[in-house]
Design a protein that fits this description.
It is a single chain. By secondary structure, the chain is α+β, with helices and mostly antiparallel strands. The protein has two domains: 103 residues, Elongation Factor Tu (Ef-tu), domain 3 (Beta Barrel); 131 residues, Threonyl-tRNA Synthetase, Chain A, domain 2. The protein contains three helices and 16 strands. A hairpin with a 2-residue loop joins strand 15 and strand 16. The N terminus is likely disordered. Bound molecules: zinc ion. Zinc ion binds next to helix 2.
Length: 243
């Protein structure tokens, strides 16, 4: 837990981008508003909560004792917090400038970070095959990377070739995890956040990630499938227990 007292109305720090493992913070309300149905939302100065986006689910979290759902507000760019319906009076008592305690459920946070990082790693293995990223989904139970083969990639129509490719992907993933490659983030010249796995992968990303690949457990890579001209590689991962 960290204590932060600074408050600037209308602005927001994205704590979830700075530290995946920070699970609670004392901060303050920086903005309030109403959604189209009249429901109240709040935004906090130091935002702990990852909103759904970039193929990653939202964090589960609370503001004071009220469970909230974080959503990226298109108009302001802020992550705004909506009380879930079963939370009673919700956020009605809070207004701008009020101190408030925010916390997340660490279980989903760590799982999402593990799945997201494993997704980058599987993507790196796929790029090494000469395939081009077309889409990704890091949700639990449905995590997959979709890619397009090069124009000369007709050999993937053969099941045996697909199985050989899957084995190469698994070997790539195993080797990178055995090396415990670091996972880092920095900002490029245009201010975009770039996430890197050692020197095998770099991609613009606003998600949460583990510290290094030794944080990953039980990474599995499915068979390589071909659907409507797209390559699909499903995967699973877990986070190793924290001490
Ligand atoms: Zn990412």
């Amino acid at each position: 837990m960290v204590q932060l007292n600074e408050c600037r109305t209308g602005s927001q720090d994205a704590l979830y981008l700075e530290d995946t493992y920070l699970t609670d913070v004392h901060t303050s309300v920086t903005a309030t508003g109403r959604d189209e149905t009249g429901g109240k939302w709040l935004a906090v100065r130091h935002n702990l909560f990852h909103p759904q986006g970039g193929g990653q689910p939202a964090d589960r979290g609370w503001l004071a004792d009220c469970e909230i759902v974080p959503v990226r507000d298109a108009a302001t760019g802020l992550v705004v917090l909506h009380p879930i319906e079963s939370s009673g009076t919700g956020l009605d008592d809070l207004s701008e400038g009020d101190p408030v305690h925010a916390r997340i459920d660490p279980g989903p946070r760590l799982l999402h970070a593990a799945l997201h990082t494993a997704g980058h790693l599987v993507e790196a293995a796929c790029r090494a095959e000469g395939w081009t990223l077309a889409g990704s989904n890091h949700f639990p139970g449905q995590s997959r990377i979709e890619l397009t083969p090069p124009a000369t990639g007709a050999q993937l129509a053969d099941a045996g070739e697909r199985e050989k490719a899957a084995d190469r992907l698994r070997a790539f993933v195993r080797a990178a995890i055995a090396e415990d490659l670091p996972v880092t983030a920095d900002h490029d010249g245009d201010g975009h956040r770039v996430v890197r796995i050692g020197d095998v992968h770099a991609a613009p990303c606003g998600g949460t990630h583990v510290r290094s690949l030794a944080d990953l457990l039980q990474v599995t890579v499915s068979a390589v499938k071909l659907k409507k001209g797209r390559i699909r590689v499903s995967y699973t991962a877990a986070h190793r227990p924290l001490r």
